[in-house]
C-alpha cells in the first residue's frame, strides 16, 4: 500500500524533509517564502452521500481531491502538501489503481506533495487535508459595502448533470471532474475582497460571505453565466442559484478594479448594507425555493 | 454544529490568524520559533474496527485524539493545531456533547487549537490531522548500531484489557484512555536516535525502526516492564510483544546517555547489524507467534 501511495509523488517536487512512512511528515518552515501565510483545509467525502460507489474510482479520486483543492483556490492560495485518509471496504487492486490515477493527475498538475495518510478498512470514505501557501489569504469576512460580486465560469452545470445524468457531456464533466479555479484565484487575489468557492450553491455560499462580512448581497439572476442547454430546463434557476458542486469562485472587488478581472469572470451583483442574499430577475425580486446543500445544518464544506 | 466545534477552543491559546468557519484556516509561519520544524500526522478511526460503537462517546473522542497526538510524541514534537473530520450516522446531541468532552479535555491539556474540520453524515468514523512543532524531529531511520533500545511505561496493558474486559481497571484505562507520552518525548528528544510510538505492538513497531535504519534489534522479554497482574495470564508475552495500543514510546539512545533517561523508561535491548527483531527470554531466543496488528498490510497508523 505504502509503495502505491509513494507513487503519487512521482513527477512532483518534494518540498518536505520527510514524507510518507514515518509517524509524521516533517516540513521545514524555511521553505515558505517571506510574507506568505499557510492555509489548511480538510474535507470528508462519504460513499452514498458525496459520490456513488458506482462512480468510477478515477472520478471519485479526482473529485474528492478537487473539492479539497478548491478550498485553496477560495483562499487565494496554491496547494503544496496533502494528507489522505482512505477507508476501503476491501483491498481491490484495480479500484485502488484507478483511484490513485484520478488523485495523482491532480497532484502532478498542481505539484502537490502527498506527505502522509492512513489507509484502513471500513465503509468507503475519503478525507483529504491540504496545506497551501499564499501572500494574500482571502477570507469570507473581507467584503465591503458597494463592492461588486463576481463569479467565475458558468453555474448550475453540475446540478443539471445530477438531475439529468448523461444528457450534456459538458455538465457531466463539471459534476464528475470539476477543476479548482487556481487560474482565477491567482489572477484576482491581490485585489479581491472576500472569496469563497461555490460548493453548496451560489445563494448559500454568497450567504456565508454576507454573514461573515455583516452585509447583504443583491444579485441578478439574468446576469449569471450558465450553459445554454441548461436554460431549456424548467428548473434552471434552481440549478444556478442553489445547485452547488460546480467549484467556481465567488468573490468581491472594488468597482474601480473591474478592468483587472481576467476572462471567464462575470459581475452578477453588489454588496450592500443589511443581511442576506436577495435575487432579482430582470429587475424583479424573486422568491428563493431552497438555499443550498446542507450536509447537516449549515456546517458543510468548511 | 460549528458553535459546538468552536467551544473546543475555550481555554486554548489560539495561535492561528483564522480558525474554524472559512474555506480554510490561516496560520502565520512567523509564530513558529526559529529552528523548529513542522510535523504533520493523520489517523483514521472507524467504528467496529478501531473502537466499538458501544464505547462511550467520551472514550471514543479521547482515544481517537490520543492516538493522533501520540504520533507527535513519537516525533519529539508538541501538537499545536488540529483538524477533525467527523462522520456521524445521525446528529445525536448527547453523544456529540460527550464526544466533544473527550476531545476537548485533551486539547486543553496540551493547548492544541482546533482550526478546521468537516462534519458529515455517514458510518461513524473520525479522522484527525495534527500539526506540531519541534526543534528535534525524531525519525524511524535514525537508529545506530549498538544504541540501546528503550521503552516508556509498561507494555501489554491495553492488549490484556481487550481480551479481558473489565478485569483490571488500570489496563482498562490504558486501552480506553491512553495518554500520549509528551513527558518522555520532551525529556529525551535532544539525545534520542530513532523514536516511534507503540501502536501496532512492540515487535512490529521496533521492526519499523529496524527497517528504516537498516539494522536489527535484539530485545529481552524479561526486561520489558509489564503490569504485575498481566503476568498471570497465559498469553502475557503475546500482549507485551504484539499487543500494541498502549501508545508508549520506543526509542534508541547512545549507551553513554543512559543516565539522562527520565524515570519510567527501561532499557530492553540494543540495535545491531542485520535485520529484523529477535526476542530473548532469560538469554534463550524465543519464536514469535504474530508480529502485530495490521489494518491492511503493513500500512497502519503511519
Tell me what you see in this structure:
- Two copies of one chain form a homodimer.
- Chain A contains eight helices and twelve strands.
- Chain A has 302 residues and is of the alpha+beta class.
- Chain A folds into two domains: 133 residues, PurM-like, N-terminal domain (60s Ribosomal Protein L30, Chain: A); 147 residues, Alpha-Beta Complex (Phosphoribosyl-aminoimidazole Synthetase, Chain A, domain 2).
- In chain A, the strands form two sheets. The first copy, chain A, has a seven-stranded mixed sheet with strand order 7-9-6-10-8-11-12. The first copy, chain A, has a four-stranded mixed sheet with strand order 2-5-3-4, with helices on one face.
- In chain A, a hairpin with a 2-residue loop joins strand 11 and strand 12.
- The longest helix of chain A is centred in the N-terminal third of the chain and has 18 residues.
- In chain A, 55% of the residues are buried.
- The C terminus of chain A is likely disordered.
- The interface between A and B is large, with 71 and 72 residues.
- Strand 2 of chain A pairs antiparallel with strand 1 of chain B, so a sheet runs across the interface.
